[in-house]
Amino acid sequence: MERTNKQTMKRYEEEAKKLLKEMTLEEKAGLLSGSNFWETKGVERLGVEKAMVTDGPHGLRKQAGSSDHLGINKSVPATCFPTAATTACSFDTELLERMGEALGEECLQENVSVLLGPGVNIKRSPLCGRNFEYFSEDPYLTGEMASALINGIQSKGVGTSMKHFAANNQEARRMVISSVIDERALREIYLAGFETAVKKSSPWTLMCSYNQINGEFSSQNKKLLTGILREEWGFEGAVMTDWGAVVDRVKGVEAGLDLEMPYSGPDNDQAIVTAVQNGNLDEAVLDTAVLRMICLLLAAKDGKKPDFRYDAKEHHKLAKEVAAASCVLLKNNDMLPLEKNKKLAVLGEFAKNPRYQGAGSSRINPLQLENLCDVLKERNIDFTYAPGYSLENDNAEEEKIKEAISVAKEADAVIVCIGLPDSYESEGFDRDHMHLPESHIALLKEAAAVNSNTIVLLFCGSAVEMPWLSDAKALLLLYLGGEAGASAAADILFGDVNPCGRLAESFPCKLEDNPSFANFPGGDLTVEYRESIYVGYRYYDKAEVDVLFPFGYGLSYTTFAYDKLTLTKEGEYVKASLCVKNTGSVAGAEIVQVYVSQKNSSVFKPVRELKGFAKVHLNPGEEKAVEILLDKRAFAYYATEKSDWVVEKGEYTVAAAASSRDIRLTADITLEGCESGSVVQPMSYCSLKAPLSIEAKDFEILYGRELPAATRVSGEPFTINSTLGEIAKTQVGSALIMQMKQQMASMTGGVENSDDGMERMFERMMGEMPIRSLSMFSQGTMGSAQIQGILDSINQESC
Ligand code: BGC
């Protein structure tokens, strides 16, 4: 993997070193924490300015007034682009780079120096509440999309904070859980996307995750923050915490953590000063962290353009282009594109109030939110709208359905807008199932019963089960399409744009088919990643499990033929060359996917893995040559016993495919790699059986040591890492929660979108918060002594 972005922090090092020499110990410690919720500190007397950081990732959530990290208080209006779950389906790095440039421009106008994103965690389970903010189940695609976005943003002189580093694949107990992962899966699946983006796009900063990895919090994980990130990958930027992720501040500095966000009061800065004074922290280690912070602040100062103004109209247009390139046409029984003179029924509240982004810290206040009804009106389409369900009620409402049926009966075709409401998936908690609300399904079924020309427009942030699929004659997946998703969808429905999005995650037939099902979300202490490297299609293909829609799948209004796949060695690389032809009657784009497999591998491996892709635009009848370079890593696996990537000597198959289950051409190549090693491999990983059930003893062999306890022994004292959910049954705990709820209610009182769903969401989010987060929740007014006092009374009460 080549380092392509040379604009690293190193260029500020000389100046930073001079400034460092002038700083007192207190100033140094102080510089390593924020000054408030969204700003770092500066060193005024030395002319080092503070910098503002802001969420992210698919738009700007700059809070000019009251601050929070839960998406509660208002932020300045900004363009809301589609979320990562959506944009990943474009498989279009050039487009993501342009989206990044636009995000960078919005940061410039708002004087924001670092955008908190992209989110690069892997979709291990469809249930993860934050999947909408992540790209894919595949690390190669994740890394490529993240790099492109980062390069775009940073090209404007604005930094990024790739997050959440690492292995943060669930919201349940996200601030305390230990992700128990074997080294090979960690490297091949959970770190690989971060690695690609660090090497290809040098993000200014990285945000460490809340969770622990194999028993150590990311915020103080030296192997992760120094060993892997800096020494192996060459990361030169600064590491900041996720909001409130610090557990032991001094240990964090020692491990390679630079900036604590947000400001949590004076205790942690003081702890650093004391540790240096009493010899528990080497001042040179502190200096290294401070140096990185000064470099960041100098880069931020350099990048500022206070008079810059972005073109909001252009950004809206781009948001539409991104959404249109990312929609995935999943089913089309001669139904789409629609003729513009047909009489339509448009059903479902989402047609008026779309779900277009996710809930939580990434929630943007959109500049210009579209909805399908308005878009159709503007285009003079003849349609009648009926809401069909209400967003506040999951149960079918007879009156609403009746009205919808009468509208559907009169129409030539019906567009049914259904999906997941905010209360179903959000940052802060995971889903319990993969179903749509009953009210949405009832609407579709009743509409399809009276009009078979039924098109489903699906709004959701992650895969859903579709027992209702046969009721849809066509199905267009919009995911969360951002502020211009409605006009993008309309363009596709009427054939102005030919759909070309491809799924960046598999859609299993049912939740139980997912390889993490038996081990998600784990116990209250750990979650075991027993499926190891078999995530998403890596599992479904190996265990030959039927899926509803495979990874990489998507339909077009035209057809493509693949021909003449050849492989040639070019130095370090293998070049895959092929021809792709548009064999239909309309222009379109094909996503050519390249998967690699090894024949007779001595270690267990997936059947195939994505290692390259290209988007090819073709007019009817046009044919183009496509070349995709595969580097050494494309053929390598992570050999734990060697602590290195290894290409085994032997024969490999390279496939050109239209999805992980639609292999069009294959070619073989022999590589001179290493001789096969002899590694102990449990049989259960060599030939997979569905449903996947890996015994603890087999996983322990991969893990290489004894598995830690998954649940807390009952009766053990609570700690600062116990969650509010856990202490809810104690009197002190429940009083505390009540007080916090009141505080939240007063905050949400001011929110436009505040509703029942939002309240439910906050309640669940709060249950996942550890006691130590009280300092952040109180915005630094509650110190560690007070929190310890609360903890002591809870423990006294429960003993
Ligand atoms: C989220 C981060 C976010 C931060 C600031 C945290 O709760 O996990 O993704 O950047 O808040 O809002």
Automatic annotation (TrEMBL):
Organism annotation: Lachnoclostridium phytofermentans
Domain Fibronectin type III-like, first and last residues per copy: 590-660
Protein origin, superkingdom: Bacteria
Gene Ontology BP, a term: carbohydrate metabolic process
UniProt KW Cell inner membrane keyword: no
Record-given protein name: Glycosyl hydrolase
Coiled-coil portions: 2-29
Keywords, ordered alphabetically: Coiled coil, Hydrolase
Keyword Coiled coil attached: yes
Family of this protein: Belongs to the glycosyl hydrolase 3 family.
InterPro entries, per the entry: Cellulose_deg_GH3 (IPR050288), Fn3-like (IPR026891), GH (IPR017853), Glyco_hydro_3_C (IPR002772), Glyco_hydro_3_C_sf (IPR036881), Glyco_hydro_3_N (IPR001764), Glyco_hydro_3_N_sf (IPR036962), Ig-like_fold (IPR013783)
GO molecular function: beta-glucosidase activity
SMART domains, per the entry: Fn3_like
Lineage: Bacteria, Bacillati, Bacillota, Clostridia, Lachnospirales
